[in-house]
Amino acid sequence: MKLALALIAMISAGCGIDTAAPAPGGAGGMAGGGGSAGGGGNPGGSGDPGTSNDGDPGDGTGPVTSVSGHITANATWIVVIHVVGGVTIDAGVTLQVAAGATVDLAAGAGITVLGTLDIQGVRASKVVFRWATPGENWYGLAVPGGGSLTASYLIQVGGGIMISGTGKVTLVDTRMSHAVGDFLVMSGGTLNMTYSSIGLEPGQRDSTHCDMHVSGPVEITATHSNFSTSSYGIMFYGGSNADFRSTNWFSNAIDIDRGGAAVTGNFSNSYFAGGAPSYVGFTMQDMATERVADAGVR
């Protein structure tokens, strides 16, 4: 209990309460255009958020801390955090989220990462970022130039992730679903994603329009992962030599939309339930005839 109180005190010292702070604009879940719950060929087509299978273990227990505004000193979030307004992690500041923490975000709230957001879930004690009220979208996690997000064993329900400028995002064993529009949106920056999933299993409901929406100069490694249950697995409009090896693509209306862009990527050793696309610049070698077993959250 003393440790918990000390960490909560650190949170208060780091960011304070500023309910007037604006939510960050244009974060991942709202970007990409055209997506809405149950729209556009989404296999889950319904306004029902369908949260029963999103991996959320339910309400956390223990002390509750409400936060908003700027985090100006290194801090750690533990137990249950209610994000009641826009949060900005200032440049040079590290916010750690401890294993087992549940972070509820109010409608319209979001987190902009100018410093470092380090989400430290473990297999037996995952971290959850989710909407405070099911179906009421939060703005997501925005990682612009200079920002860095690392996450292990994160379950993210709603919102989305937006990477721009020189922002860097590393996702390992992370499960993501239920964006209002597109989930992982890149207009710049670097993504390193392994053993993760955007979307759900076949037959489950997901509101996400596009698992990934990519444009501009980007660097992508997204291997041993699942892309599923969306209108589009990826809108691949930017990037060269992207690494999508050993991935599974299933229950999407369209797995890959290149849109005429001169993009290149390696999709070798991957599984496409609807058949692998044949685009110039795509490498498709030793393709799997059934789902890759070592893809998705372990």
Structural class of the helix and strand makeup?
A: mainly beta
What characterizes the major β-sheet? 17 strands, parallel
Into which percentage range does the β-strand content fall? Answer: 35-45%
Distance between the termini: 32 Å
Taken together, the total number of domains comes to 1
Radius of gyration, rounded?
18 Å
What are the defining features of this structure?
298 residues, mainly beta, seven-stranded parallel sheet, 27 strands, 5% helix, disordered N terminus
Short summary:
This protein is mainly beta. The protein is built from 1 helix and 27 strands.
Give a topology summary:
Elements: H1 2-15, E1 64-71, E2 75-77, E3 80-89, E4 94-97, E5 102-105, E6 110-113, E7 116-120, E8 127-131, E9 140-143, E10 148-152, E11 154-157, E12 161-163, E13 168-172, E14 175-177, E15 182-186, E16 189-194, E17 197-198, E18 210-214, E19 218-223, E20 226-228, E21 232-236, E22 242-243, E23 248-250, E24 254-257, E25 265-266, E26 271-272, E27 282-283
Parallel strand pairs: 1-3, 2-4, 3-5, 3-6, 4-7, 5-8, 6-9, 7-10, 8-11, 9-12, 10-13, 11-14, 12-15, 13-16, 14-17, 15-18, 16-19, 17-20, 18-21, 20-23, 21-24, 22-25, 23-26, 25-27
What can you tell me about this protein's structure?
The protein is mainly beta. It has one domain (2-283). It has one helix at 2-15, and strands at 64-71, 75-77, 80-89, 94-97, 102-105, 110-113, 116-120, 127-131, 140-143, 148-152, 154-157, 161-163, 168-172, 175-177, 182-186, 189-194, 197-198, 210-214, 218-223, 226-228, 232-236, 242-243, 248-250, 254-257, 265-266, 271-272, 282-283. The strands form 3 sheets. It has a 17-stranded parallel sheet that branches. Strands 2-4-7-10-13-16-19 form a 7-stranded parallel sheet. It is globular, with a radius of gyration of 18 Å. The two termini are 32 Å apart. Mean pLDDT is 85; it is low at 1-50.
